[in-house]
Automatic annotation (TrEMBL), chains A, B, C, D:
<comment type="pathway">
    <text>Amino-acid biosynthesis; L-phenylalanine biosynthesis; phenylpyruvate from prephenate: step 1/1.</text>
</comment>
<feature type="domain" description="Prephenate dehydratase">
    <location>
        <begin position="5"/>
        <end position="183"/>
    </location>
</feature>
<feature type="region of interest" description="Disordered">
    <location>
        <begin position="278"/>
        <end position="298"/>
    </location>
</feature>
<dbReference type="InterPro" id="IPR008242">
    <property type="entry name" value="Chor_mutase/pphenate_deHydtase"/>
</dbReference>
<dbReference type="Pfam" id="PF00800">
    <property type="entry name" value="PDT"/>
</dbReference>
<keyword id="KW-0456">Lyase</keyword>
<dbReference type="InterPro" id="IPR045865">
    <property type="entry name" value="ACT-like_dom_sf"/>
</dbReference>
<keyword id="KW-0057">Aromatic amino acid biosynthesis</keyword>
<dbReference type="GO" id="GO:0004664">
    <property type="term" value="F:prephenate dehydratase activity"/>
</dbReference>
<feature type="domain" description="ACT">
    <location>
        <begin position="199"/>
        <end position="276"/>
    </location>
</feature>
<protein>
    <recommendedName>
        <fullName>Prephenate dehydratase</fullName>
        <ecNumber>4.2.1.51</ecNumber>
    </recommendedName>
</protein>
<keyword id="KW-0584">Phenylalanine biosynthesis</keyword>
<dbReference type="InterPro" id="IPR001086">
    <property type="entry name" value="Preph_deHydtase"/>
</dbReference>
<dbReference type="InterPro" id="IPR002912">
    <property type="entry name" value="ACT_dom"/>
</dbReference>
<dbReference type="InterPro" id="IPR018528">
    <property type="entry name" value="Preph_deHydtase_CS"/>
</dbReference>
<keyword id="KW-0028">Amino-acid biosynthesis</keyword>
<dbReference type="Pfam" id="PF01842">
    <property type="entry name" value="ACT"/>
</dbReference>
Length: 312, 312, 312, 312
């Protein structure tokens, strides 16, 4: 095991690597690309790596199911950090290639819907074929198999290509959220702008109101939800668990009480971590709803103790 | 101050006295009738009595507003016991009086609607006049001012009267609930069939959803409500507080957490006590809703602590 | 039957008469005092009067139970108007009486708690005895039975008394709400500042969440509640129905849908009328919550019809 | 345009084709495989086909995002039928191939996680490479590029292969749900076992309680949800719409009222159809919650009309 090794969803030159390199500590770690999300996470599980960076949510494609499913099942892991990366593609070509001569393009399958409109406008006759990753697409262009690849501009250097067009993206504000995942440990202290992730199972039987009850455990304690995604449990059509991101840190009382409420009413809850929100400073976070601050929780506890002593 | 003196809503011969005498400890106390609910409770507040028995809810007339308002305002008091008493009236007359010669009847104003139908059938021409209490009505019959009084059968002896007709009551199952009130102290230990009473203020401003929020604090923790009564706060039409009876004991986790939730979101909560339910044995009480037992609360707390340590 | 006769809770000289006289139409009606709320309402039921004015809510004493219970039971009646009257008492005495010589005072039992503090301060030794009404108390002072009576200042003339002290009231902003009640008919058209009253039964069996469901029928359609009062159904301790005042008019879609929702889930709902709010102009009423205006209801209906035709 | 042409997610030999052939009408239609879900649906949009069969939900992989996103955006389409197909893979090989000689295997990327455990046990050393579809994998085996392909057993004939092992699937009860999609029209009449699909947007601004409100529109009318899936709206991380399947038919009053409620409070709602539930007979469907049947809705409407006429 190596405390200095971080894995990531490879190969080199992907957006995941770019996201990983935005973390200051990445400079002092050995960064190891892996062929898949499960492979990156298994390296953490079995001690070959201290942490793994993997994509978890994309503003165009939605939740990254491989990551969600890996975090929900198997040996527990925890999220310690998130990274938001704007996603803009570059059209990478071998030096000297002109746009008019691009007949075949490649890239990761999830890249295709993100550049579809651009392709229709600028390369209406080019043939698309999928590659295993954007970086792999770049490699295939280097090898001459395709004329151009959609990838991050930063991948050009690695594969000896040049960016013919940059900032390509059909959707404005496209970005991907990545998480740094490690073995379970004590979460970092709250920063004032934190997020808590859990996976929640609703029970094997058919309980139509169960999702409503789940949301009320958060709502009644004033805990805002930022994301809720259903994932099949594998027990057949209609059986789902929910990956939920909530505002706040497990050490805050309203969050802790909501989590305990879920733990009591749901057959299974998996805590995935409390960690700083990317791109949001504590000043930008709305204060807790009246009645849900830690001070108010403490005052209510004190009042209860006094009431039980006949001193309220 | 006398630890052996109990006051009650008098005069002698009322249903309140009958209710008080159902308590075993009454046999060893000095029982002192008072002219009003405030007088009975003030004697407790100023130390002249250890406790007071007063009516709080009547199955025909509803909440006893004098009691609710006294408990909600002024120096705090606590409920330690409740007594349920079936209410059936006797028509008390001077010995020898026949029904056909009854021309005038009396009784407490709240007795009148409870015997209205009986009167219409059996004494359609009799004139009703209100007395200050049922017992006072009996006294006035003794003095010859009226021909008959509606009162508890037990009042006959006190006033030298005889019950001409008994078991009179328009409504089946009529009963009154009384509470034994003392100065605040530690509530009795839970019995498994307990009730918790609180008064809750919703805030001076206009908050239409506030009552819904109040009920959700109970509902989300599986705490059933047995009674909810609005009382004006005195701040003008439309300003109400709520007297609430909930199933369970303040020392049970689901009740405690609900009370703390109310304390956090409401401007004022007054704890009125946790005490055994009258007429219900622990075997008859439904078990807590799944996920809300003390064991499940404890297990969830343990899970949270482990989660915060990375050991869940 | 007389279409020109209005009954009211008498006797002459009560606040109810004063409230009735604030209605312009009262000038052209025969105003008949009745001995009780049931008597006033029965006159309407049996056709002896076109309408009755009775008190329904007092900012100090709460709901007027006789009125609530009469409206909830028996042959249906409907509310057509409400009147808000500030309540201030005058101390009425025979001409020439000085405060220092007042040894006995009287008034209606509900007046007593409203002037208790004033009495304690200004007449600490005076003896209180209850009268059948404030006006009746004035009459008894006229007859010399008591030295002074608490009543409306307007009652002085009727009984040949003079107001020794005026504007007496322990609570600021004390007021009473009265309603004009008639036989059921089509409600008046909405004014933009309306109120709808209903009585709702929750079912005979023990349903802890039933009140929450009731409130959600209103909440989900954005209908604000102004008052909710529990009244015993007469079926035993713990069996309640609820008198509810909601903002808006039955002809408004959000109100109509909420009422139908209640009708579907509750064993019984009694519509008591939609009528203009006293003391509130349409300009002062908050607009409906987004998504709940009549226009939005109509647009949603249109969309549904188009959807069912495959044209949405 | 051809009323007799149905497209489906091809190529020939996929599970989608097998699902399509379970529909009786398929026998009399021209069945045309398309290279992608968008292509299959665009053929319907532009009139080249009457309907398209596409996968929408998989018990292992979850929602089929391409289908969900296509139905949520672009020119409206409607679902008219659903098909549930158990998913079991066969390992297809060229005739005569033995298991011990299989060194390379292929299949659609979503097949891989569904047979991962089987591979680990029976072919631990075989190399996996992804194909564009399971059928395409079979073709590549036919061409000799790989030794074996995971596909439906029915694909063997098409590609001149033989099933070496059948009924392969890591998860029990694995199945996929397909939908038959056409241009918007009047939905089929209710069968008593129906499902209604909608896509709901929650508004661009940050509204933490919006999902809870959405669920309450269904819950308050007793409409059970069978599936809720979030999909990014493309407006950036954290912006989601929800694809929802609800029990019941748009022509049922409780469903219609819930849909109108959503339409009023949400910026956009897209009705995707009401259609018979696959694999469930009307006898197996739970009756509507008390108070939510069509008869009860009609009775409540009648009561409202009578109330507005003063005849309730």
């Amino acid at each position: 095991m190596s405390a200095t090794r971080y894995t990531y969803l490879g190969p080199e030159g992907t957006f995941t690597e770019a996201a990983l390199r935005t973390l200051p500590e990445a400079a002092t770690r050995e960064l190891v690309p892996m062929v898949s999300v499960p492979a990156a996470l298994d390296a953490v599980r079995n001690g070959d790596a201290a942490a793994a960076l993997v994509p978890i949510e994309n503003s165009v494609e939605g939740g990254v199911t491989a990551t969600l499913d890996e975090l929900a099942a198997g040996e527990p892991l925890m999220i310690y950090r998130e990274v938001l990366l704007p996603i803009a593609f570059a059209l990478l070509v071998r030096p000297g290639t002109e746009l008019s001569s691009v007949k075949t393009v490649t890239g990761h399958p999830v890249a295709q819907p993100q550049v579809r409109n651009w392709l229709r406008t600028h390369l209406p006759d080019a043939l698309w074929e999928s590659a295993a990753s954007n970086a792999d697409g770049a490699r295939l262009v280097q090898e001459g198999k395709y004329d151009a690849a959609f990838a991050g501009e930063f991948a050009a250097v690695t594969y000896g290509l040049e960016p013919l067009v940059t900032e390509i993206h059909d959707a404005k504000n496209a970005e991907t959220r990545f998480v740094l995942v490690g073995r379970p440990a004590r979460p970092a202290a709250p920063t004032g702008a934190d997020k808590t992730s859990v996976v929640i199972w609703l029970g094997g039987d058919d309980r139509p109101g169960a999702l409503l009850e789940l949301l009320q455990e958060f709502a009644v304690r004033g805990v805002n939800l930022m994301l809720i995604q259903s994932r099949p449990t594998g027990a057949g059509i209609g059986n789902y668990c929910f990956a939920v991101d909530a505002e706040g840190h497990i050490s805050e009382r309203r969050v802790a009480e909501a989590l305990m409420g879920l733990k009591r009413i749901c057959p299974q809850v998996r805590f995935l971590g409390s960690y700083p929100r990317a791109g949001v400073s504590p000043e930008e976070v709305e204060p807790p709803r009246p009645g849900t601050s830690d001070e108010e929780f403490t005052a209510a506890s004190d009042w209860l103790v006094r009431s039980m002593d006949g001193r309220a």
